[in-house]
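Two records follow; treat each independently.
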Amino acid sequence: MKQLLYIILYIALAASASAQEVIDTAQFVAIYDYECRTQNDEDAPVTDRMQVVVQVGRTVTKSMPRSAYMKTNGSAEEEDVIIAEHQEAVMHMPTVWTGYPLGKTTVRDWIFPHEFEGSEPTPDIAWTLTDDTLTVSGYLCQQATATYRGVEWRVWYTEEIPSSAGPWRLRGLPGMIVQAENEAHTFCLTELRQEATTITAPEKNPDVQRMAYAKLLKHRNDVYGNRQYAKNPFFHVPDLNGGNLSLGGSIRNMTVFELGGQQLAFADGHPLLTKAHVYQPLELE
């Protein structure tokens, strides 16, 4: 039964990926280790870890959780994808298309029980370049600093990689961002692949709630930033506050199964958390 479930999930993921529109071809693929330093629901310090994959094309850069890249490119076993998705769920990393549509940035984010899409003109980041240098991941880098959407960043970029791209929404320097950090977050480039992979557009899903990005950002921070969230990630969904997981809102199906000795839950193909960690926002405004 368990194997059948994996097959069903994997076929659904593959069908979804194959139906997506190709909008660019990556010139190379950058893989970053991402760490978030936070607290669990009992206020004990924890460090969450995942990987972020960035496809750098001629006109579009797509930054996404590693599981999303594996699904898009069919580059992993289905069990690895499922495990990665659950490990990533606690960190709330969206998928970001910079340069799609032209001149804009589009963000897809799953905030239970809905999937959202926000779009806005691609914002400039007012970097301050310094003379400090450092070798990071084998690249000679220069330092730059900025306050972006209320969060301070110190980054190291290298002109050895001729691209202004970086992880997540960080970009706009005269070289690839190799490391980015602040008090809560760290991105560090670990691998650069010369892979001409296709860059796909957001899936054409009629159930996605589309809105201005400012509205999506406010909703994300209102939900994840609420003091109740770490102990009860469903506090904002009245249908699910009876203490037991059940179908609610727009959720059409829910699956719970065991994998690797742990119980995992999916709602409409998205992982669910029964407990979470204190939210450390990448953007405040």
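The next record belongs to a different protein.
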Amino acid sequence: MRRVTVDEGSAGQRLDNFLLRELKGVPKTHVYRVIRAGEVRVNKGRAHADTRLEIGDEVRIPPVRLPERATLPEAPAREFPVIFEDEHLLVIDKPAGVAVHGGSGVSYGVIEALRRSRPTAKFLELVHRLDKETSGLLMIAKKRSALVALQDQLRERETGKTYAALVWGDWPAKLKVIDVPLVKFVGSDGERWVRPGKLDEEDAKRSISLVKVMQRTPQFSLLDVTIKTGRTHQIRVHLQQAGHSIVGDPKYGDFERNRELARGPKKFDRMFLHARRLQFQHPATGEAVTCEAPLPEACLVLLKVGS
């Protein structure tokens, strides 16, 4: 039996998320089971999964048996290009091909590498996520209060996130708003997928993307896509269902043309989706903050060659 006192770094966190961090490696189902059974106590009383913890709360954690796991390699220390940083948050320019966190066959990601490179940091948590194949702006909170405030902004759609996406073909000039619900599902391959759905479909979630054409070439259209909702694979599926998949997308793209592009003289072997602009209110001051990340060199070269 362990008793843990909630400190500033965990204040405001839900009980389930607090336990998942304290009991690394324990399956989620087991964590929720011990909460429902009343084995976890907050200040000697029963608590629910969504109970918000406060500084000084005492959490009693029952003994749990960790499953035997293969030893994973330790994350190497790594820093990433910093776009904005103060004592509350960090905004970096994530390269393509790097996961934001470990899991699902990935030993470690951005957050583990950052924690290793900053051993004195008391708190580092992802505010949001980017697909492994996507490059660009990623927010990391350095305080619990910043994490909660920024995630609230994302939930209330009070942030602006704009992506540069290169798609195959000539994007229709009139298609400026995509309002197509999306459904997550697990395919026969065991992978997580997303497909367009219908509004009356049980698992469908409304998803809105605003599209603006920035450049046209004989092969491609360069788009600015601003998302009003933050669904999994939203931009990738929205553009694909409109008939113009993202260049280099390994999941929803035109596999034959992607292969030709990677093997041909252009040697472009990544997905052309880049989180280029991020607008939000500073979690402490309330001031408007705009961060921008330039297109990666490989993307600039492809645009120049394709024009």
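Discussion point: The CA atoms of residues 60 and 158 lie 37 Å apart. How would you locate this feature using only the token line?
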